[in-house]
Amino acid sequence: MPPRWAQLLRRREILVTAVIIIVVAGSTASHPYFWASGNLAFIFADSVVITFLALGESFVMIGRGIDLSVGAAMGLSAIVVGFRIQNHGMTLLPAVLLGAGLGVALGLGNALLVGVVRLPPIIATLGTLSVYSGLEFVVTNGNQVDTIPSSITNLGSHTVLPGVPVILLLTLPFVLLSAWVLRYTAFGRSIYAVGDDAEAAYRAGIGVQRVVFLTYVISGLFAGLGGVAFLIYTSGASSTTGINDNLTAIAAAIIGGTALTGGVGGAFGALVGSVFLTVTLTAMSFAHVSDVWQPAGVGVLVLLAVVYDSRSRAGGTRRSPRRQRGAR
């Protein structure tokens, strides 16, 4: 049996956190401002939206699904909520509830297509991606959200401690709640069981269709909350909001340890993966890497994470006849 420290290093969250520390240390050595509290606050605030999307994506992917519409759902939520704030003076709490409700409604669209109609997840969510993206253009009608009151945007710019923005602290309870649901509830264990082997889960009495249905609703919920977080952080939204965030959310989940093959992943991995992507992209900017190369860099990181994940899982399979579930 390997020593305790070796077991800990195999946990993706710890490994990625160690890489984050190395990237931060190297960037700070070259550019001391990288460690400034203002830049750290920017990194953490910038990672919040992707964290929400990656949390929802993790629920779906652990159940061996995929949601390609999370970015469009987030953008549509940001637009609808933003116009209510801008044109009707909606305050923060009703805005959060509206964003959550809209996200659930959009998630229900995916849930019905995948969990009830039983379309392949990639086909169903690719279709809703087009629908939700199109609705962004319809709702904006050539306008954009650009007047969000400071009482709301201050949550994205103010810090409670040096380098710790308020919006990050508001996000952590959702991460903790997600971790608790996945690890300590019957529903969470059912998601892992379905992702590990849906047929075996069905024979064990688990309502596979119900579990899959709910994971897509949860993904929509977090996308809706991500839309509100986007407004808080950026103070605006347009018809193209979220257009590039679908794959970024999937990338954050994969880097954080959620497997495309299902049955493996966790909430803390979604948070760590999101911070890792933001730190890496910021470090690339400090190193004067052109923006056009940054998506390619993210793609390379995702490929490395997938290769590492597949190799480590293959090694575990050779050592044990039982498939590793890896619930975190």
Tell me about this structure.
It is a single chain. The protein has 328 residues and is mainly alpha-helical. The protein contains 14 helices and two strands. It has a two-stranded antiparallel sheet. α8 (166-184) packs across α9. The longest helix has 27 residues, at 208-234. The protein is globular, with a radius of gyration of 20 Å. The two termini are 20 Å apart. The model is unreliable at 5-9 and 319-328 (pLDDT under 50).
- What structural class do helix, strand and pairing data support? mainly alpha
Q: Strands across the major sheet, in which order?
A: 1-2
Radius of gyration in whole Å, from Cα? Answer: 20 Å
Distance N terminus to C terminus? 20 Å
Strand content: under 5%
Number of helices: 14
Tell me, rounded to a whole number, the average pLDDT.
88
Total beta-strand segments: 2
The helix/strand series, from N terminus to C terminus, equals HHHHHHHEEHHHHHHH
Major beta-sheet overview: 2 strands, antiparallel
Shape: globular
* Oligomer status: single chain
Which residues sit in consecutive blocks of at least 5 with pLDDT less than 50?
5-9, 319-328
Percent helix: over 70%
